[in-house]
Amino acid sequence: MSFPSTRVNASRVLDDPTAPAWAAETARWARDELGTPVPALGRPGTLCPYMPRALREERVELTECGLPGVCAADLVTHLRRSAREFAEEAGRLTPAQALLSCRIVVYTALAVPDRVLTEVRRRVKPHLLAQGLTTGEFFPENNDRSVRNATVPIARSPWPALVLRHSTPHDRIFLTDQPDLYRVFREAGPGITATAA
Questions:
Q1: Are 153 and 143 in contact (CB under 8 A)?
Q2: Handedness of CA 126, 141, 114, 9 (dihedral sign)
Q3: Backbone angles phi, psi at 163, to 5 degrees
Q4: Is this model's pTM higher than 0.85 or not?
């Protein structure tokens, strides 16, 4: 099955007044929320420690998925294909470049993003971890909180999105309370080594 999609670079979108709303708003979110310091986290730095440099080096890609989410299987197929493309392209990068690279898959046609994205992530994440990748879900009403400060929401975005990136040693913090996923992560190892990270 073919899933046509639009792919743009987040850094370039920030300077493009003609960019579509989903891309412009997601790029600003990456810069202003993921890439901005949050003192309440209880640690220095930004919500995503790599985002400011990733944007400077143009390593953040946005891609649109316009599937309506009626069939979760189609969304799973689309995400797995997108992850495969991401991994193939990242395979041509140095470890330091790959560490900064991510693909934000933006869902522009989902009626119930929380339920649908959670299901897609649940079905795809073990497969991704086995390949040294990982994904996280973001949507406007996401109530996921910081492991350092439970009052800080960390996964709210203007559009429903799943972010693809390489797994790192740091990901064990997020997986230790999910035994099945942690086992896959431990057996496969992180996609980016401690040295590169």
A1: yes
A2: negative
A3: -105, 125
A4: yes
